[in-house]
Write a structure and sequence with these properties.
The protein is α/β, with parallel strands linked by helices and about 650 residues long. The chain is built from 15 helices and 30 strands. Helix content is about 20%, strand content about 25%. InterPro entries: Aldolase_TIM, GH, Glyco_hydro_27, Glyco_hydro_27/36_CS, Glyco_hydro_b, Melibiase_C, NAD(P)-bd_dom_sf.
């Protein structure tokens, strides 16, 4: 990317390419000032039969540097500086729309994506830090996506008001390589509506292959108001809590109601001793049954911790956990009673939030039991949560009673209001408390959960049974587009180390949960965990992918394997997954055997979205096996492995070779 010097124009400008000296090409300003600059493009790229744009934007000060870039989709285009050094080559995803973007105000900020949600996440990151209260303008070119879609995605991921303006599509025209062939009426387009000053705007591209489905670039200017939308504070906090999925331990799967301070503190100490804290696990969470069952304090109306279980109260346990450098969580429910029949928080949200903050709580798991009839929802939402696949053909609920009308806004439901009440109470205390919604996927929580909490349960409870684990994995696999920074669908806590799961099943369970960027909350007794299960929970590459500070999206299924793609099957979830990782320096690839006997599984590089472009050109990749850490060397075309029943292969596919 090069920068030229020119006179002040004031408006965003598009420039046509023409053949220039040095076997390159240059952009020329057709405006009144008649100045020009140069971007060098190779002969190979110059002759490319694909569509691209050059876009130049002046700053608001005279004689400022022009900021120019070339924009391409599925186009082998490179940009060079005057020393012929390659500055940027967008990656193309053959067969998929590729969203390649560069922010005009900062030429160092550029990226390309195969998924539209990733594009939105990238744009959101350009307007960080999120806690700043100011307006910012984001100018960029996009294609295959409307301004309304971009605005909606930005609001979804940034939780901010978005105002947009867009240059009409009529302003975008095909461009000829020879400027003499450009019709006079296309050389100048006055767009006084951009800034009201009547300056000239040009819209040209230089590639020719636009015969079947012409692509039109869109100059989009989005004014993003950083004042937070109502209720979005629960997601975007100044201290970063909730930006990444949680890592921790919880009492329930191991002990149920049989809990006390000793067991909780033992788990905290073992988190240190076993190296789990060093691996990133930080929350020690007390689930149900921590209070007295008889009711609240008659004077203060506070929930009373059970002194027989917690002689020093919850605050005493929290203090000791904090002294270990860990955080502590607590449990309640958005009803009048918890699932085990203890006092819950509906109607007492402010009092309980104040108690939790006073005790030093850092995490709240908020369940969905004890809901009185006046707080139930008017309509029923489809949650296809049952091992009987015939009851939910391809994830639908044909027999659902009282379904909601089309386009019903579930954020107005009683369920959403019950959870919002606790969100608001937590935001009102002088302590940051991560908010984990446990409402079992009801009330279409995926459409409003990330405006209420940091994670939200998508199904009913997990059990240490293989059939239940794959059933939940299947359901959650269809919700991956909802996961990103500040909000994560939650398929429930881990059962690694529990029940009669085989080693392979434990491994597959953890790998899928980590790849989906689900909260990873350990649910086994740490003082008796075996080395194999501990090694699974501490797997560095999977935890590194899970906690990626740059890429928020999880891995996505790219092929179902056992079933045709997009099949909803409680016994056989999607078997092939991939996701980009800045921390691994490559792509995470999973191959899963959902069958009851040993089977071969093959990862074909040209089928994987993140690898497809280079693979089709014959590139191999350096591959590392995640479970053993073995360097598999340069692997061409594909990688085949035999997997035992219910096992999973996990790979890091790195640089091309």
């Amino acid at each position: 990317m090069t920068r030229g010097r020119r006179a002040y124009l004031g408006d965003p400008m598009l420039y046509a390419f023409d053949e220039g000296p040095d076997n390159g090409a240059y952009y020329e300003d057709y405006g009144d000032q008649g100045t020009s600059g140069r971007i060098f493009v190779s002969d190979e790229d110059w002759n490319s039969p694909n569509l691209a744009w050059t876009w130049c934007l002046d700053s608001d000060t005279p004689n400022a540097s022009i900021e120019c870039f070339i924009q391409a989709w599925n186009c082998p285009l490179r940009t060079y500086n005057q020393d012929r050094e390659v500055l940027w080559r967008p990656q193309a995803y053959s067969g998929l729309p590729s969203y390649t973007i560069q922010i005009l105000s900062n030429l160092d900020v550029k990226a390309d994506f195969a998924h539209i949600d990733d594009l939105a996440g990238f744009l959101v990151k350009t307007i960080d830090p999120p806690e700043v209260s100011e307006n910012k303008e984001l100018n960029f070119i996009s294609d295959h996506i409307s301004s309304n879609e971009i605005a909606a995605l930005l609001e979804k991921y940034s939780h901010r008001e978005v105002e947009k303006s867009i240059m009409p599509l009529e302003a975008m025209r095909r461009v000829w390589k020879n400027k003499e062939e450009v019709p006079e009426d296309l050389k100048r387009k006055t767009r006084p509506d951009l800034r009201g000053n009547g300056q000239d705007v040009f819209a040209f591209s230089y590639c020719e292959d636009v015969k079947t489905s012409p692509a039109y670039g869109r100059y989009i200017s989005l004014s993003v108001s950083l004042s937070l939308l109502s209720g979005a504070n629960a997601l975007v906090r100044p201290d970063g809590v909730g930006r990444l999925p949680a890592l921790g331990w919880n009492t329930w799967n191991a002990f149920g109601c049989d809990i006390d301070a000793s067991k909780v503190l033992t788990a905290a100490e073992e988190t240190i001793n076993l190296g789990l804290k060093d691996a990133g696990y930080e929350y020690i969470n007390i689930d149900d049954c921590w209070s007295v069952k008889s009711g609240r304090d008659p004077n203060t109306k506070r929930i009373i911790p059970d002194s027989a279980k917690f002689p020093d109260g919850i605050s005493g346990v929290a203090s000791k956990i904090h002294d270990l450098g860990l955080k502590v969580g607590i449990y309640s429910s958005a009803g009048t009673e918890t699932c085990a029949g203890y006092p819950a928080s509906l109607g007492y949200e402010k009092i309980d939030a104040e108690s939790f903050a006073e005790w030093g709580i850092d995490y709240l798991k908020y369940d969905n039991c004890g809901v009185p009839t006046n707080w139930t929802d008017t309509y029923t939402h489809c949650v296809p949560d049952n091992s009987n696949g015939s009851k939910f053909p391809n994830g639908t609920c044909p027999d659902i009673s009282n379904p909601a009308p089309t386009a019903y806004d579930w954020s107005s439901s009683n369920t959403a209001q019950r959870y919002n009440a606790m969100r608001d109470a937590l935001l009102g205390v002088n302590r940051t408390i991560l908010y984990s919604l446990c409402e079992w996927g009801q009330a279409d929580v995926n459409t409003w959960g990330n405006g209420t909490g940091n994670s939200w349960r998508t199904t009913g409870d997990i059990t240490p049974d293989w059939s239940r684990i794959v059933e939940i994995a299947n359901e959650n696999s269809f919700l991956m587009n909802y996961a990103d920074f500040w909000g994560y669908p939650d398929p429930d806590m881990l059962e690694v180390g529990n029940g009669n799961l085989t080693l392979e099943e434990n491994r597959a369970h953890f790998a899928l949960w980590a790849a989906m960027k689900s909260p990873l909350i350990i649910g086994t007794a740490l003082d008796s965990i075996n080395e194999e299960h501990l090694a699974i929970l501490k797997n560095k590459p999977l935890l590194s992918f899970h906690q990626d500070p740059v890429i928020g999206r999880p891995a996505y299924p790219y092929k179902w394997g056992y079933n045709p793609d997009w099949t909803f099957d409680p016994a056989h979830p999607a078997e092939y997954w991939s996701g980009p990782s800045s921390t691994l320096g490559g792509t995470l690839v999973l191959m899963f055997n959902s069958e009851d006997s040993a089977k071969h599984r093959t990862a074909v590089w040209s089928e994987i979205p993140e690898l497809k472009d280079s693979a089709e050109k014959g590139s191999g990749y350096r591959v590392t096996e995640i479970w053993t850490g073995e360097d598999l060397g340069c692997v061409k075309d594909q990688y085949d492995v035999e997997l035992q029943s219910h096992d999973i292969a996990a790979l890091v596919v790195g640089e091309s070779c």
